[in-house]
Amino acid sequence: MIIPVLTIDGPSGAGKGTVSRAVAKLLDWNYLDSGSIYRSLAIAVLQVGIALDDLPAITQLAKEMQLGFECGESLLVRLNGVDITAQLGTETTGNAASIVAAYPEVRAVLLQKQKDFRKAPGLVADGRDMGSVVFPDAPFKVYLTASAEERASRRYKQLIEKGIDANLAQITREIEERDRRDSGRAAAPLTVPEGAITIDSSSLSIQQVIDAVMDLVR
Ligand SMILES: Nc1ncnc2c1ncn2[C@@H]1O[C@H](COP(=O)(O)OP(=O)(O)O)[C@@H](O)[C@H]1O
Ligand SMILES: Nc1ccn([C@@H]2O[C@H](COP(=O)(O)OP(=O)(O)O)[C@@H](O)[C@H]2O)c(=O)n1
């Protein structure tokens, strides 16, 4: 039996994680937060003190790192047995993730780890290249976006709510820089995958986006 996959790709702050988790719960499907894999590698690189341009060392670390995911109320991630959930969501981690994710060698090492999440009864996969590279045969594909201004403001609120110090002007600059890097890279750039429907969530509520995605799958 072919296991169905719903891919949700898009830029930072578009709402991919929020919508993917909700839809996975409604469908009772598995969930892959592929960004957390690149984020975990970035944490490992920063912890060991490897430079972000030391490709051989980063690739080796990607091969060796052991990741554990626990999907409860929120996602818990262990890197080599240590809980790194608290560091996972910071902008420092996200920006470093976007740098290590641009290396084709790193992406090649992490490809199978992502494909392994495809288990019955189905999978919701969120990231940048879920519909284009990792699950090109997915029957359901969404490209979720929103204006850079709206995405920066959402990220700002999210960080403040978590008690993390944040600066809106800096977040806006970082989001735009990340958009440029993720879309402009040669390896698996952020793009609208073939066969995807585009949802612009700039003026939609979270529930409206969830409803639109559920309509597609049903
Ligand atoms: N349609 C929406 N309207 C308003 N806020 C949203 C919407 N979608 C997501 N958010 C909020 O924006 C923030 C970023 O969402 P998230 O799911 O982490 O985005 P992504 O995974 O695409 O980076 C979260 O705080 C989330 O609650
Ligand atoms: N499938 C994916 C997922 C993330 N990434 C990279 O990892 C970074 C962090 O991804 P994320 O999905 O956790 O980030 P947010 O969209 O939540 O900010 C992105 O900026 C991408 O560069 C990727 O290259 N491919």
From TrEMBL:
Q: Report which gene this protein is encoded by.
A: cmk
This protein's superkingdom?
Bacteria
- HAMAP family reported for this sequence: Cytidyl_kinase_type1 (MF_00238)
Catalyzed reactions per annotation: CMP + ATP = CDP + ADP; dCMP + ATP = dCDP + ADP
Positions binding ATP in this chain are G10, P11, S12, G13, A14, G15, K16, G17, T18
Give a yes or no for keyword Nucleotide-binding in this entry. yes
Q: Which NCBIfam families match?
A: cmk
Where is it located?
Cytoplasm
The UniProt keywords, alphabetically, are: ATP-binding, Cytoplasm, Kinase, Nucleotide-binding, Transferase
Q: Name one Pfam family in it.
A: Cytidylate_kin
**Which Enzyme Commission number(s) are listed?**
2.7.4.25
**Which leading EC class covers this enzyme?**
transferase
**Molecular function as annotated in GO:** kinase activity
> Coiled-coil regions in this chain?
none
Q: Main localisation, per the record?
A: cytoplasm
Which InterPro entries does the protein's record reference?
Cytidylate_kin, Cytidylate_kinase_dom, P-loop_NTPase
Q: Which family does it belong to?
A: Belongs to the cytidylate kinase family. Type 1 subfamily.
Q: What is this protein called?
A: Cytidylate kinase
Domain Cytidylate kinase per the UniProt entry, residue ranges: 7-217
